[in-house]
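TOKENISED FOLD:
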Amino acid sequence: MYKGKKKLKHPNNDFLTRDFNKIIQYLNKGEFQKGSEFADRVIEKNRKNKNILREIDGIIGKIENIICLGQYKNAFKLIKNGKELLYKTQNEDSIQIKQRKAYIIFLEARIYSEKFEMSLAIQLFEESYNIRKETGDKIGEIWSLLNLGTSVASIGKFKEAENYVKKSLNLAEELDIEVCVIWSLINLAAIQYHIKNLDKSSFYTGKCLSITEPKNYKHTSSMCYNIIGNCLVEKGELDEALFYFKKSLKNILETGYKYQLAQSYHSIGNVYSLKGELKRSLDYYNEILKIPEIKNDQIIKPAYYTSIGKIYGELGDYSTAKNFLLDAFESLKKKKIFLLHYMNFSLSITKTIHYLINILILSNDSENLKEYLGQLKRISEENPDSKQYSQLYELDRAIILKSSDRLMDKMEAEKIFKNIVQDNIVDHEITIESMVNLCELLIYELELTGNIKILNEIETLSDQLQTIAESRSLYNLLAETYFFKAKISLIHFEINRARIMFIKAQNTAKIYGLKRLANKISNEHDYLLKNLNIWKEMADKNISLEERLKHTRHEFLYSKMVRTKIEEIPIKDDHPVYLVVIFPQNGRYLYSKSFQDMRIYDDDLIASFITAINFFGKEALSSSGSIDRIRHGEYMIIIKYKENFCFGYVFKGHSFSAMTKLDKFIESLTTLENIIENLHLSIKTYLEISNETRLTIEQLVNNIFFHNDTAH
């Protein structure tokens, strides 16, 4: 389940030679190549001295290190060599021989677990555990228990896994063996992550890092950072997750463990995918393809190929997407792998088939749809206890029916989607996708009939989507749902509510690091303001529902559009016009700056600006924040409040970059305590701000408003 997790395994004191300890020290530091090279010298020295037991110890130490380098073929050769040496020794039943035999069996099991041949791995781990228990090798018992836990966890038996790993932790703490404690904590944290007990997972990683960080154990610390990052992804805290993943990547690049390197690239790519930065995500995924060990691994490769194929599909490159997904599918089918759990994601052949079906529909390639749907049906029937498989089969059956031109097929698809939505949530991704597809069909029906009851049904679905998004910290979905609600509000001519929903959507996207999504939403809000008079005229005329739908049809369901088109939306700069800092209680101007030669004191513009301040006052200071911008002719105006000051910004162009600049200015200014004190002093004394204060503010303004970094 978790790559690179087994270290410092001393079967008994007989192993505690200086040479063996040094090999293991390299292992603990993540210096696998050095450990392997030193082990070669130990093997050669003891071979010359005809010390078979010490030669075997050197072989065991080398295997430990090269497994972490992904050199499985060499490891198997050494295992064979070690077994042959054991066979040549006298006193085959002695404790020393049995313990080394158990260790070699254990290492063989490790390789099979890394290659995800779990049935054989579990069998060998159990064999090693029984020998170690028989010989009183408690440290060996710990490692066999720990690896039994990780192996059964990889096939989804998390409760059984937790029991094994807790036993290993108890023994490790009883014997006060640090490295065993470390790896037990890491794997308990990973198990808790998979069962979504995120607080408990954080407890275990925190406890582990309190041991590993002070001693600069890079390999084990990086494992903890990865788990923390994945827990943060589950909570929707993507920027914080990215920090930990990159911290982990830095360590991994230094230790050279190829499989963990691939996992790290995948984790970072996944975060950028969730942020809507698909090309950046693909850059990290493509780094995985540069690792030869991954390209040649028919077990782990399909996991990464599935993610890469999905991203290409979202970018609209259906041909490349299809190639990657087909490669992943064929590998999984060949190895008969249905479901495997890694540390930071799960691999399922059913999800690979699901993505493949979607790509075939989007590319109008219906030739093999029935074949892949049949594969899903068979897997579902062979696993009747898995509700997830049956729901995914029904979802894909409905998606295929929905793509048909026949009305009867669309009606059948609608029934299936409704059944999934009304069923208990087994996999929230399946439920959400069913809701989104159902919304699309209902919108299609609404456009055909103009029946207001259908619109009410759509609104109910949007409420359900919001509930799921809030309960599961799916902030990209939450932002998209607010956007969707804004569009629905426009159909009802509830223009102020639509603006509130746009602001909620943009703020949600902004807070959780979804910059491209926030930019898209901001542009839509700007577009509404530009056409506000048209909407008011339509409301006054109370035009028909059919006519309203024509004006909201374009990109009406944001969830359908965002993943494929968000990458194409540039983050355009604004053009500064005027900036002012005001004390709102008496309307006194503390600082102002005109950015261009213009009649900034034009009565109309100043009147609009003062009106904006008065209008924004209560709204901006309230929790609702229902208005964040207004438009006057060709100008846009933003007002924000902080530290008892009002900050106003007049500009032309796009609000997203303008808001980003104003936020950065406010944040920078309010962290300068002496400047804030001087502004307050100016208010109390009714004097102009000092030249020094003005110069400092001027430098901030020039650095922020004349440099566009919103696109980076």
